[in-house]
Design a protein that fits this description.
By secondary structure, this protein is α/β, with parallel strands linked by helices. It is 37% helix and 13% strand. It has ten helices and nine strands. It has a six-stranded parallel sheet, with helices on both faces. Strands 1-2-3 form a three-stranded parallel sheet, with helices on one face. Helix 6 links the parallel strand 7 and strand 8. It is elongated.
Length: 275
């Protein structure tokens, strides 16, 4: 979506690699950007491109499973899909150790990301009030800009932190409750963990739609959500074999994808062409 950089590179004759950051692939609408991009291209003496095909001419890298891509927004012919990978966290974290212990039969991770978490009103309170009554341990991360002490839900089976690496938490989880951000939802599915999505904006509605379509989780309305609703939904999701199988199906697809290192040859070819 960095159109200025793309136009500058095109004018300079430098190949462009576009790396997708939206799991569903459906945030940018060509009909909305066509005119502004056309004006920008004209200013810099570039040929008319009404279909905005120049934006994806060279190479598109999609670090997401193809099944998660929204069918109305297919990948271009120049796209290469690679396995989404994050650094494996090998450190010890007291919060993760706490989550992994205890006698509760289930483990739940709650996060609303690092942007929309500060715009979510009392959503943390409503969700935690519902989750604390389940036979599970709940680890919630609220972000660096929210004081965990400001969350008034207190229970022996709930722990609230500003931040814990997702890669360290997910191996211990049976359920993730999140905002359906691309990294958050794909991170959970890469571990085969079902998701309850509470989309708040940006690409999250469409990500949640794909999550539900793949039967790897469910979507709830964060505006009308009550603590009783999240309690019941979490209970049924934890008990759902079909949602677990759906999440594991996506995990298997991810495991079979090409590694990021596999695109080095394509990058080298582009570099040679650029020279």
């Amino acid at each position: 979506m960095d159109f200025g950089a793309m136009v500058a590179a095109e004018q300079a004759g430098i190949p462009r690699v576009v790396v997708g950051v939206i799991a569903s692939g459906a945030l940018t609408r060509i009909e909305h950007i066509r005119n502004p991009v056309a004006k920008l291209r004209a200013v810099h003496g570039l040929r008319d491109d009404p279909g905005c095909t120049e934006l994806t001419r060279d190479l598109v890298v999609s670090p997401f499973p193809q099944s998660f891509r929204h069918p109305d927004f297919p990948l271009p012919a120049t796209a290469v899909s690679i396995r989404p990978e994050s650094g494996r966290d090998t450190g010890r974290h007291a919060a993760v150790d706490w989550l992994a212990t205890g006698t509760e039969p289930g483990r739940v991770y709650l996060t609303l990301g690092t942007i929309f978490n500060t715009e979510s009103g009392d959503l943390f309170l409503r969700v935690l009030e519902g989750l604390r009554r389940l036979p599970v341990r709940v680890l919630a991360t609220v972000g660096v800009n929210i004081d965990p002490a400001s969350i008034s839900v207190v229970a022996d089976n709930v722990r609230i932190e500003r931040f814990v690496p997702q890669s360290a938490v997910l191996p211990h989880c049976d359920l993730v409750v999140n905002h359906a951000g691309s990294g958050s939802v794909i991170g959970a599915l890469a571990r085969g963990v079902p998701v309850i999505a509470l989309p708040l904006g940006a690409d999250q509605e469409l990500n949640a739609e794909r999550l539900t379509a793949l039967e790897a989780g469910i979507t709830l309305d964060p505006i009308t959500l009550t603590s009783d609703e999240i309690h019941g939904s979490a209970l049924s999701t934890l008990a759902s074999d079909s949602l677990r199988v759906g999440a594991q199906r996506v995990r298997e697809e991810i495991n079979e994808m090409r590694s990021p290192a596999a695109i080095v040859a394509e990058l080298e070819c582009l570099m040679g062409r650029g020279r």
